[in-house]
Amino acid sequence: MTIIDISPDKDGxxxxxxxxxGIGDETPSNGSKVTVHYTGTLLDGTKFDSxxxxxEPFQFKLKRGAVIKAWNIGVATMKKGEIALLTxxxxxxxxxxxxxxxxxxxxxxxxxxxxxxxxAEDLSPEKNGSIERYPIVQGKDFSFPEKGGxxxxxxxxxxxxxxxxxxxxxxxxxxxxEYDVIEGVEKALEKFKRGEKSKLKIKSQYAFKDTGKPEFGxxxxxxxxQKMLLSKKERLEQAKICKERAATYIKAxxxxxxxxxxxxxxxxxxxxxxxxxxxxxIKTENDVFTSDEDxxxxxxxxxxxxxxxxxxxxxxxxxxxxDALQLSPQNEKALFRxxxxxxxxxxxxxxxxxxQEVLKIQPKNTAAVKQIEVCNNLIKKQLSKEKRLYxxxxxxxxxxxxxxxxxxxxxxxxxxxGALGEWGQExxxxxxxxxxxxxxxxxxxxxxxxxxxxxxxx
Length: 458
Prior knowledge:
This protein is of the alpha+beta class. The chain has helices at residues 51-54, 69-75, 183-189, 235-251, 255-276, 291-310, 314-327, 332-344, 348-361, 366-410, 436-440, and strands spanning 3-5, 14-20, 33-42, 47-50, 58-61, 83-88, 109-119, 121-122, 131-137, 150-159, 162-172, 197-202, 224-232. Strands 1, 2, 3, 4, 5, 6 and 7 form a seven-stranded antiparallel beta sheet that branches. Strands 8-9-12-13-10-11 form a six-stranded antiparallel beta sheet. Keywords: Isomerase, Repeat, Rotamase, TPR repeat.
């Protein structure tokens, strides 16, 4: 059999000899879960490991860091049923350190590998195999399209070997339904790189479900195949496209959708700016963009504030205005909309300051004049309400004090009632009976001792 160099740099690092041809044309793709048997030996024939001796096939995910570099390269070229011998240089195996005690430093290794089977990379959210990817051409970078971003793809749809669609289509990710793009394609595109070409196997759950597609001859619950080539736009261009879509949603009074689009615009701006600066971290809102990016970011914040006001999300509206004012401290719209947010948050005494700042910038802004009048009226109403509240409060306290005083007086004895002032038998000198005068005048006590009408000398 012919021995070929399959190392990427053609440096002889991984040499492959096919011992038994495989079946078909398909090979496993990155992320596929492969099942193999293997036997590893040193150059002198010493065996250091074998899955056959354990009678247990070995499984791993291709190009996910689970095996040595030579395996990721060699196994990716193998078809089902194929048996191949890989000769692996140290830099593609265990390097200068080796893997003691069985593999010495700087060892060249030989692996006889049998490809038993593999499962394609599973892109389905549930990891149930409903969306499988088989790469044909690898992508050019490590960035992926984002939800809401515009993607430019060529789709070839097949069922039972027959092509039912073959077209170019551009659409915003997450809006594929509007362009007759099935859900499984959209889910897969989230993991596509620029320039990638892959085959997808999509089950009915993410395709035409239990209704099928009669016009394409696709029955209910059918699995279909899609081949796709993705070309990804620059982030700044994506940001501008999303901004235009957001503006369309505002005109249609679809403010929630507009908010989503504007958030994506700003996300693109942050990431784009990060890429331009070759930074590993995404910029924060306090970082400085270029002038063009500044203008776009400012527009995003202002329009987000508008959408938040329309949907009564007043705290978010205030925050969006604050972000805009960081970019443009004397921005008339930002100040005006922040004032509106404060008004909606029942803070006219704060809102009026923003409207007054607007007038400093543009004295002829009649809308700000009207809003100041509204603020003053609200402030007056609040003061009047507070006065009434305090007045009622003091009246209530005074009434309570008066009631407590009356209750206190009621608890004291009445000196003008009862036995007091009405002389009893025991109070007369000698305990005598009341005289006729005393009986007619019960509140008067005669002081003479003998009870006559005569008074004693004092």
